[in-house]
Amino acid sequence: MAENATLARRIHEAWNERNFDEIAEATAAEGRITIVGSGDTFEGPEGSRAYNTMWAQGFPDGQVTVDRVIESGNYVVVEFTGRGTHTGTLATSMGEIPATGRSLTLQLCDVMEFKDGKVHSQKTYFDTGSMMAQLGLTSTQTASQHQ
């Protein structure tokens, strides 16, 4: 089972290298990536490639740092930090977000299920509100405004 944790870590490292072919090869034909907040899904190796390309196009200098890997049987949880500058268009199911030029630091968590050495499912969790606020797309309120 330890190879699942190693593969999960490698997938995140491959993103930093923009090696989306390697990540797609690690995705099962019936594999599914789900962005939990929006419910967006990406199917199979081509969906994996589209998902990873979407983020890289929006944040061309983006990098992820793996903070923690927790393994339990066929499941691996990867907590990681994404950092980048929004200098490209981020295509989302809610429409395209044109470049804002703003920097972003986002805490993310992937819950991955492996079968036969491939990613069968990946659920990605992150705070979209924080992302939108950091990109200057929503108003932010401070605690003093609530007093």
From TrEMBL:
Alphabetized Gene3D superfamilies for the sequence: 3.10.450.50
Alphabetized SUPFAM superfamilies for the sequence: NTF2-like
UniProt xrefs under InterPro entries: Cyclase_SnoaL-like (IPR009959), NTF2-like_dom_sf (IPR032710)
Domain of life: Bacteria
Protein name: Ester cyclase
